[in-house]
Each structure stands twice: as C-alpha cells, then as structure tokens.
Amino acid sequence: MTTIAKKLRGKGIAHEPGAPTLTLENVTVAYVSGASSRALRRVNGTAETPHALENITFEVFRGERVAIVGPNGAGKSTLLKLIAGVLRPTEGEVRVFGHGPAGHICIGYVPQRSQIDWSFPVTVEDVVMMGRVGQIGLFRWPRRQDWAVVRQALARVNASHLAGKQIGELSGGQQQRVFIARALAQEAELLLLDEPLAGLDAPSREAIFQILDSLRPDGVTVLMATHDLNVAAERFERVMLLNRRVVALGPGTAVLTPDHLLQAYGGHVQFMGEGANTMILADTCCDHGELPLNKRG
Ligand code: ADP
Ligand code: MG
Fold first, then answer.
1. What is the pTM of this model?
2. All domains in the chain, ordered by first residue
3. Is 147:101 a contact under the CB 8 Å cutoff?
4. CA triplet 66, 68, 71: central angle to 5 degrees?
C-alpha cells in the first residue's frame, strides 16, 4: 500500500506527545507561484512585498480559544487555510500536534460562507458524513456507528430536524451549525472557523458560542476569524490582531489598544469618548457589511 493510501485508510497522523496544538514558525505566504520572499523583494527593489502573510510566528495550546481580527485583506482566511493544510506556506513551517497539517484528521475547517458553493446538491446529513471520511477511510461505506455519530453531531448543534434538507435551503445560522456538526462528526481537536458570525442575528451567534462552550471539556482548540472586536475581546482567551503580520497577540485588553488598532486598521478606525468608555469603530466590513463596534472597559 502506498503511503498516501495508508494515510487515507488509517486514522490520520499520530500526534507528537507534548507538542503544542499549533505552531507557526516564520511563515510567509505569497500568492505568486514559485516566488520566495527574497525573489519578490528583488523584483520590487524595496522591502514592500506582495505577501498575504509575512513572518508569522506563534503557538496555540490545547483547549485555547483564539480570535483572529484585522481589516479586509489582512490575511485571516489565508492563515486559516494554511493551518487547515489547504494552502502551503511559501516559507516557514506550520505544525499541528508536531507535524505538518497534511494527513491530520483532527483539523475541522469551516470556510468563509462566501467560499462555499451553496447550490451544490447535497443534504445536511451528507455534509456532516463528509466529516467522517478520515475516520472511515476513502472508498469504504459508512457503517451504522458512523450514521450514529452524524446524528449525534446534528443533535449537538440542534439541527436534527434539518438532516434531510438540501444545504442551500438553510439560513446562514443553520448552515454554520451544520458545518460545525461536520467538524464534530470528524472528532476535530482543532477547529478553524472563518467568520462564522458574519450576517448572523444575535440568537444564532449565541447558539454558536454555546456549541463552542460545550466543546471545552473535550479540550477542543478554536481559532475564529471575526470582524467583531467586541466578541473577540469578551469571548476569547487571546486575540490576534493581524495585518499581514501579527500586530499583537494576547488577552483582548492588551491587544485592542488604540495604538495597535491604528497600526492594523490605519485611518479606518475611530475612537469615541475617553478612558474606560472609549468606543472603537472599525469601518471595515465583512461579507455581510457589518460595522463592528467595540466598547472597551
Ligand atoms: P482576509 O481574510 O483577512 O480578508 P485574505 O486572507 O482573504 O484576507 O487575503 C489576504 C490577501 O491575499 C489579500 O490581499 C487578498 O487579495 C490576497 N489573496 C487571497 N486569496 C488570494 C488568491 N487565491 N490569489 C491571489 N491573492 C489572494
Ligand atoms: Mg477572509
């Protein structure tokens, strides 16, 4: 059996004992094939390079919840794709539990809604079953226990009643919950969510946080890209402020300072009021045109 076939038929890559959930070391991404950062610098003749991400280094540990914020084009989706193994770094290294992301079945990736073809004719339970492929192995049929896992995952996100529906028929909040159910069925230990809150009403957002809270006892690690600075500060242990580079990474109160926000958002951020009552208004929009507000206190 080839190595690839072994990986597909097996249970993914074994985790290195004691390794952090996620490690990025000096990661740079250029959407120009075959171009290293040195080559790009030579072409441009300046330090400015058309990198989506530049020199990103950080670690995330088991069970942590990290929000990724930054203006449009900051590289949030690129970062999540790198960690999901959808994209390879131009330079540097990404390690999940001590190994490259390829071959891991423990990474649950929920792409930005605008990147999914919602007209694809597939039912909700089939979408969730796709999460089982790594556990079942390709070219094998799901067994009764796999269908039981799918049903449990749908129940956990309160979507059992949607099982037979076409994915395109659902509301935005329901679609996000179904994709989270797919990650649950996959038994993901690292959950990557790309703007799952965009366009959702308050109850749908709350439903997603309830699901994430229910994953805490299992030690599931969550990285979520969001435009909502308020949510980032209040609901996550750490916030990464990104603009091609990591501007700051740490607790929300330490990261979302006027100085850091000006570095990341430039003129697209306004401060209203003073001290603990400062309101931060970032006029950068997500898929659904929200204006994120943050009240610092
Ligand atoms: P964000 O999610 O923070 O809005 P992205 O990761 O989508 O940022 O994009 C980062 C940068 O990379 C942007 O300048 C964007 O135009 C560019 N980019 C993203 N995807 C591609 C692609 N497939 N080809 C070329 N450039 C891309
Ligand atoms: Mg994005």
1. 0.85
2. 22-294 (3.40.50.300)
3. no
4. 165
**Cα gap 175→181, rounded to integer Å:** 10
| Nearest partner of 70 among 84, 59, 80, 62, judged by Cα | 80
**Rounded distance, CA 60 to CA 63, Å?**
9
Give the ligand whose atoms come closest to the C-alpha of residue 198.
Answer: 2
Non-local (6+) Cβ contacts of 97 within 8 A are: 13, 15, 16, 19, 20, 21, 104, 106, 189
- Taking only the tens place, the pLDDT of each residue in 71-125 is 999 999 999 999 999 999 999 999 999 888 777 778 999 999 888 888 888 999 9
Give the C-alpha separation, 275 to 151, whole Å: 49
Atom 27 of ligand 1, residue of closest alpha carbon: 31
The residue whose CB lies within 8 Å of the most ligand 1 atoms, and thus the one to mutate among 27, 28, 31, 227, is 31
Whether 230 contacts 293, CB under 8 Å: yes
